[in-house]
Amino acid sequence: MAMKPPTNIWIRRQQCPCGDWKCYIKYEGDDQASTSSQQEKTETTSSLLSSEVVFTPYVGQIFKSDDEAFEYYSNFARKNGFSIRKARSTESQNLGIYRRDFVCYRSGFNQPRKKANVEHPRDRKSVRCGCDAKLYLTKEIVDGVTQWYVSQFSNVHNHELLEDDQVRMLPAYRKIQEADQERILLLSKAGFPVNRIVKVLELEKGVQPGQLPFIEKDVRNFVRTCKKTVQENDALLTEKRENDTLELLEACKNMAERDVDFVYDYTTDENEKVENIAWSFGDSIRAYTLFGDVVTFDTSYRSITYGLLLGVWFGMDNHGKAIFFGCVLLQDESTHSFAWALQTFVRFMRGRHPQTILTDIDLGLRDSIARELPNTKHVVCIWHILSKLSSWFSSLLGSQYEEFKAEFDMLCRLESVEDFEHQWNHFVARFGLVSDKHVALLFSYRAFWLFSYIRGYFLARMMTVEFSQSVDTFFKKILSEQTCLQVFFEQVCAAAFGNSTREGVQYVHIKTCMPIEEHARSILTPYAFRVLQHEIVLSTQYATTEMTNGSYLVRHYKKMDGEYLVIWIPEDEQIHCSCKEFEHSGILCRHSLRVLVVKNYFQLPEKYLLLRWRLENSLVTMEGPNPQSSSDECAQAFHSLAAALLTESMISKERFSYVHKELTGLLDHVRNMPETNEFVVNMPAHNASD
Questions:
Q1: Buried-exposed string 34-43: b where 16+ CB fall within 10 A, e elsewhere
Q2: Looking at 178-187, 321-330, 448-457, 580-589, which range is the least confident one?
Q3: Candidate from 13-27, 450-464, 484-498, 564-578 with smallest mean pLDDT
Q4: What is the predicted pLDDT for the residue at 19?
Q5: Neighbours of 335 (CB within 10 A)
Q6: For the chain, which has fewer Cβ within 10 Å, the N-terminal or C-terminal residue?
Q7: What b/e sequence results for 583-601 when a residue is b if at least 16 CB atoms lie within 10 Å of its CB, and e otherwise?
Q8: Is 561 buried (19+), middle (13-18) or exposed (0-12) by CB count in 10 A?
Q9: Kind and range of the H or E run holding 197
Q10: Main-chain phi, psi angles of 224, to 5 degrees
């Protein structure tokens, strides 16, 4: 057990931010899958054992091997309230071992041993009572094939047989599965005493005390047996970590020689061993100058091989894609380590602080951000909270969990702080969670994650599902198994620049024909324009009421949502909406757009077309001198052809059927054509009426 891991394995951080040593987070689909599959395998074996009929062995019964016979007899013994052990074996020069004796665990008598020269020797009572239950095997070779047959069998016991809940506690059936062994060693290494380790395992598995498939004595013996091996492995891992971090440092030095804009830094301990190391690329620093207004610092993963915490800084470009800003490996999760990471990142980015930083719930990280980035808004990403809800509340609430999750989602969307705090108290009381530690944790952090608190913070749409998926894609690229940290460094390099390709033409149809829509399409990236276009389309469903002070009340024509106050300042073309969508995402909301239309605006004021969302601000160039103009030419040509085709095909049923069939085949053919980044418009003059 506890062999040296051959690869660098990354897992999600499991320690719960509530600070309770007994509490850790389970993430669906992560490394828990291996544990659950092992559990399922164990449970399946156990259920098969309880349901499968094991017939009584008999003289002459044949087995392919002695191991098969032992397993069969062991299953029979467990079903009948006893266990077995291997006794005598007989060997010859020609046949090797040709006889095996399996006996009841209470067979024979304990032979008196010479007592050790100690003051108080232990006087253990033997369970052996001379039981005669046995199964003897003999090997024979028939037609060149080796087989074993039962030569003697007795099922007569001179002791009481045990019930099922008792027989499982016999030493022969008390097994510590591999997943449990790893957990025991981890807790033991962290300094947990054996009785607390057992308690932790009971809590994690949700079983009553004494219902584990092993007892405290087994855990103690296992830890004692593995102690030497663990120490040897620790020494090997320490050596591997030291060698690999030096190789990583050398890789950073080599990269700095090839790329003058590449930056890295590291710290060492009192023995001059590398503790923490961080790096960033020149392209990342340049991207930060454009899109460093909002940063995500993701610390979800750690290496169980090296004991290092992984932190990655991300931003979002104007095409809605995650961009890599920097990476750090920390030896621990202390406030001091996080502070060094933040200081180093700001130094890499030439002293520029982000407006907003998004993180997970972490007390040490929260304190470090407050100290190192005092003017930066700190937000806890809602996706990190949602990923923990199941681990915190599903077992506790049982069948009520789905209802709890739906109500929690509704509370997250409330726009008023007062409404949230009033409804929160009723919410936790209804589900009996008033004294729950995780509910208390969420409430204490409410100013960091609740929409009603952070709606005025600029987040650049970095809490959308699409951005979360983009970050997950990056991690999948870099968190595959590696043999060393140098390979990890190379994978980060490849993933960081994997999206640095030229953008193909993305044609976005005009939906309203409003001048402000056409104007915005010529300036914004397709991603930003689609978001704004959605708001423009919805703005047509809103009515405005002008107030005496020049402000406007804007409400949906069906009054499906509440009314919003839009303040219009004509002197310097300022517009402010109570929904604060522009402050939140940098995209004007439907309410403000409605007022601008009422004010006869045919173009949006320049200040409301943020530079971070503009096409001209892209990290990569678009194909062609004017891709949108080329797309418009194609669209007009297709519209002309489609209109003529529709008119002609509606003359008869035969024409319609023919056109439908041909177009379906043409569409399938086009979809199967290879994609290319090149887009050349060379449309021949064509008259649809010809």
A1: ebeeeeeeee
A2: 178-187
A3: 13-27
A4: 77
A5: 16
A6: C
A7: ebbbbbbbbbbbbbbbeeb
A8: exposed
A9: helix 194-205
A10: -65, -40
Look up residue 187 and give its two tokens.
């807790």
HSE value, Cβ hemisphere, 13 Å, CA-based, for 367: 7
Report whether pLDDT(118) > 90: no
Alpha carbons 344 and 373: distance in angstroms, whole number: 12
Contact between 391 and 25 under an 8 Å Cβ cutoff? The reply is: yes
Secondary structure of residue 324 in the 3-state scheme: strand
Q: Are 434 and 428 in contact (CB under 8 A)?
A: yes
498, two tokens: 């994997």
Do 478 and 488 form a contact (C-beta atoms < 8 A)?
yes
CA distances in angstroms from 142 to 70, 72, 145, 150, 640, listed in the order given: 21, 22, 5, 15, 86
Amino acid code (one letter) for 47: S
Q: Quote the pLDDT of residue 497.
A: 78
List the structure tokens of 312.
Answer: 């990655």
Domain boundaries, the chain: 1-8+215-500, 515-617, 626-690
DSSP labels, 174-186: ----HHHHHHHHH
> Rounded to an integer, what distance in angstroms lies between the CA atom of residue 485 and that of residue 479?
11
Q: What percentage of the chain has pLDDT greater than the value 90?
A: 49
% of the chain residues with pLDDT over 70: 84
- Write down the residue that tokens 């107030």 correspond to: 547
Number of alpha carbons in the 13 Å side-chain half-sphere of residue 493:
14
